[in-house]
Amino acid sequence: MPRPLKFDRSKKLFEIAQKHLVGGVDSPVRAFKGVGGSPLFFVRGKGPYLIDADGNRYIDLVGSWGPLILGQVDTGVLNAVKRALRKGFTFGAPSPLETELAILVKKAYPSIDKVRFVSSGTEATFSAIRLARAATAKKRIIKFDGCYHGHGDSLLVAAGSGPATLGLPDSPGVPEEIASLTLSLPYNDLGAVETAFSKFTDIAAVIVEPIAGNMGLVPPQPGFLQGLRELTRKHNSILIFDEVMTGFRVAFGGTQELYGIKPDLTTLGKILGGGMPVGAYGGKEELMAQIAPEGPVYQAGTLSGNPVAMAAGIATLKRLNDKKIYDDLEEAAAFVEEGIKRAVQKTGIEAVFQRVGSMATLFFSKNPVKNYSEAKECDRKRFAKFFWAMAQRGVYLPPSQYESWFFSTALKRDHLKKIVKSAGESLEEINRAS
Ligand code: HOZ
Predict the structure, then answer these.
(1) How far is CA 68 from each of CA 32, 139, 239, 421, rounded to the nearest angstrom?
(2) Residue 148 designated active-site
(3) Domain shared by 208 and 154, yes or no
(4) For this structure, is 153 an active site residue?
(5) In the annotation, is 346 catalytic?
(6) What is the rounded distance in angstroms from the CA atom of residue 164 to the CA atom of residue 153?
(7) Which of 65, 215, 217, 271 to mutate to test ligand 1, by most ligand atoms within 8 A of the CB atom?
(8) 332-350 pLDDT tens trace
(9) Residue 25 Cα: closest atom of ligand 1
(10) Which of 34, 228, 288, 348 could bond to 400 as cystine, CB 3.0-4.6 Å?
(11) Are the CB atoms for 193 and 231 separated by under 8 Å?
């Protein structure tokens, strides 16, 4: 057993924060309701590490929930941000950087002819839904249980991530009339989608996390995405791939590159902004032409295309446009996968490690998880113990069973070995205690 870490400063900071911030946080999962205890407050990041307010150092497997694929404070991105900041914080007017980033996005995503930058993934997804409804003159949308597409009204139905962690299937405040236009179906169940299309003729769009990351990491079953492509085409509905998490992550061109399927619209965020707040949506020319000012579908934003965020995105994507980076990430994550699977086998604990590229989840479940109802069967108490055992050993995981781990290029062999060793010890520790 390592010498127990102290979290006194974090605890104090949380007490104070709760007096001034709702729940002491600005995004619910950060409150640690999924793992109990008091959230860690961070004061610094560097490469593969996060440093908390008590001076404890952790290997970071959260990467700010995905954006930091190059690790904390990457020098190239930092320099690009510094250069941009010196020239202006925001113009509220076009800058050449937006076009430069759009060209990089289009190169990675051949399904995208035109891009619109926004400031978050949430903005990207609700704007894409509005566009799909306008373009098809239909109202209803299909999403999947346990997928999370931000907190737009139409999308907070059976949502994963925070709502799953807090056990909130639907949010009060979303009018019933709006929620009733969203059909939430089981992930990986093509039959349910077929039935919905045969029942309703007014389905504007199917929005999906093509690799689900917000109920923990759940890959699509073979044929699921292809089936969605065929059904949406057949029924004149728009297929939206929400690649906010998977974009530039599972491959430079995201899931659509990995599986060779072209959606009508794609939403992006996270890595796209290199750690700055950026989202985007894009797709076919004729669809995107319906957005204002080319068309009547309204959407706007003061900080959209912000030059500092664009500069961070450009620096990040230029680095990532190199297949070797993805090969190295695959090798690093596979090393951890093998090590953890060995430890699971050795302890006999019921746990399944699921992974696609540099996204992964260790589910405390007997069988592989294919959808949200199976994810909800996991032993979340055990996950909470595992989370804290890993934290005590200096490895920071997402504080919820329903989130993905994200690997970065900053993780070198020694860090990976430490992750595997810590996981082995943590599994043994929770096995002894149960
Ligand atoms: N819902 C986000 C990840 N799936 C968490 C965002 C945050 O707390 O920063």
Answers:
(1) 21, 36, 28, 24
(2) yes
(3) yes
(4) no
(5) no
(6) 16
(7) 65
(8) 999 999 999 999 999 999 9
(9) 8
(10) 34
(11) yes
